[in-house]
């Protein structure tokens, strides 16, 4: 029987430029989170640590390294994200470049043993995009068809960002999914993006849209009536903080280069139910609709983007993993989710282990040596295909 299991975005445990991936994976595993939504940024930073730095070849090697790190902790890579496809872009040379990038990204996904790549809706300026739905659909169908040629097939989860140019609601996202009409092209339902467009407005003093409660209730009812749960490829759960003042010019998070909802998303997301941190979105209502109205079962990704992921404190990954684990317990209780208890992996890396071999993979034989320093002192040495703690 399918049940719900907790996952977390690797970025939600700390930005890759500040906190290394081995430390973040260790903390996820220690807190019972056995699924990872891998941000491409984390893979890039592993690749940068290899000789010659960030190259396509080193990204491939980094994918092997990450896969083995996850295997050692019995962590599943739920998806690889984001892929900024910019569907409907007018510059068709740019489109061809993105297709080339996509082929490389699918190769990485195969190595990572994940079959899902997340594509967020584009938020490029409208003048850079074709306005017609047909063009966006054709671009996304092209991606789906390329994914269908892979073995195993790569699936794409399309997510409507609440500040997207043409697609900023789940309704608009689902319309695209239906028009693409490919079995490997589905929707990502994100509780923040759903409520962040229909219910919330960080630029308003109230933090809400006019008639937000009524419109969200109607939106949830449509969601349950309309969406085929078989095409729900990913579910992400997050809340956000109510700001003490509207996010307009003069606010510390305001940027004239991006929409208010985008600035709010990048600085102020929270884990589910963190009311002590001013969480205020009706996330439980949306979650109930997803889990009980639609009947979704599978990985549930705790996804937080926040100014706190930049905190250089070495304890940041630990703090965020603990917060995510506590949020998951609240969600399970509030939504009466059927779960299984996650057992610690047999090959858990010990922080006090010194140069103890923990794994080997024949596919990694030719990898060069590299060291990934852990912010908690638990670094990783990769040498001749072996992973060792430092």
Short description:
It contains 11 helices and 14 strands. Helices cover 38% and strands 16% of the residues.
- Helix share bin: 25-40%
Can you give the mean pLDDT? Answer: 90
Q: Determine Rg (CA atoms, Å).
A: 20 Å
The structural class is: alpha/beta
Shape verdict: globular
**Element string (H = helix, E = strand):** EHEHHEHEHEHEHHEEHEHEHEEEE
What distance separates the N and C termini? 40 Å
Q: How many separate helices? A: 11
Number of strands: 14
User: What fraction strand?
Assistant: 15-25%
Spatial strand sequence of the major β-sheet: 3-2-1-10-7-6-5-4
* pLDDT < 50 runs, ≥5 residues: 347-366, 374-379, 383-390
What composes the largest sheet? 8 strands, parallel
Write up this protein:
The chain is built from eleven helices and 14 strands. It has helices at residues 21-30, 40-48, 56-72, 92-112, 133-148, 170-180, 191-198, 212-226, 260-268, 283-293, 316-335; strands spanning 5-9, 35-39, 76-81, 116-120, 155-159, 185-190, 232-237, 239-240, 269-270, 299-302, 357-360, 370-372, 380-383, 386-389. Helix 1 runs parallel beside helix 11, helix 3 runs parallel beside helix 4 and helix 4 (92-112) packs parallel to helix 5 (133-148). The longest helix has 21 residues, at 92-112. The chain is globular. The two termini are 40 Å apart.
């Amino acid at each position: 029987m399918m049940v719900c299991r907790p996952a977390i975005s690797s970025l939600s445990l700390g930005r890759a430029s500040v906190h290394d991936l081995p430390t973040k994976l260790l903390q996820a595993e220690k807190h019972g989170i056995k699924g990872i939504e891998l941000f491409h940024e984390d893979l890039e930073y592993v690749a940068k640590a290899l000789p010659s730095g960030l190259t396509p070849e080193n990204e491939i090697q980094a994918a092997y390294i990450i896969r083995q790190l996850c295997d050692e902790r019995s962590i599943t890579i739920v998806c690889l994200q984001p892929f900024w496809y910019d569907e409907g872009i007018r510059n068709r040379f740019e489109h061809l470049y993105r297709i080339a990038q996509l082929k490389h990204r699918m190769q990485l996904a195969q190595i990572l043993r994940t079959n899902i790549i997340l594509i967020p809706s584009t938020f490029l300026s409208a003048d850079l995009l074709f306005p017609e739905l047909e063009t966006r659909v054709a671009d996304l169908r092209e991606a789906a068809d390329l994914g269908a040629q892979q073995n195993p097939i790569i699936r794409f989860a399309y997510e409507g960002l609440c500040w997207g140019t043409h697609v900023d609601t789940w309704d608009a996202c689902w319309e695209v999914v239906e028009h693409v009409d490919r079995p490997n092209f589905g929707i990502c339902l994100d509780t923040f993006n759903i409520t962040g467009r229909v219910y919330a407005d960080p630029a308003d003093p109230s933090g809400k849209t006019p008639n937000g409660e009524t419109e969200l209730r109607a939106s949830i009812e449509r969601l349950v009536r309309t969406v085929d749960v078989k095409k729900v490829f990913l579910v992400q759960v997050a809340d956000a903080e109510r700001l003490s003042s509207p996010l307009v010019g003069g606010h510390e998070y305001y940027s004239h280069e991006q929409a208010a909802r985008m600035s709010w998303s990048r600085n102020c997301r929270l884990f589910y139910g963190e009311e002590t941190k001013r969480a205020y979105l009706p996330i439980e209502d949306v979650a109930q609709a997803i889990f009980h109205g639609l009947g979704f079962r599978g990985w549930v990704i705790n996804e937080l983007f926040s100014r706190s992921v930049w905190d250089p404190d070495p304890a940041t990954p630990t703090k965020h993993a603990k917060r995510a684990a506590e949020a998951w317990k609240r969600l399970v209780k509030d939504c009466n989710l059927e779960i299984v208890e996650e057992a610690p992996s047999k090959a858990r890396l010990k922080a006090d282990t010194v140069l103890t071999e923990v794994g080997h993979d024949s596919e990694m034989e030719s990898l060069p040596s590299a060291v990934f320093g852990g912010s908690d002192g638990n670094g990783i040495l990769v040498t001749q295909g072996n992973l060792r703690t430092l």
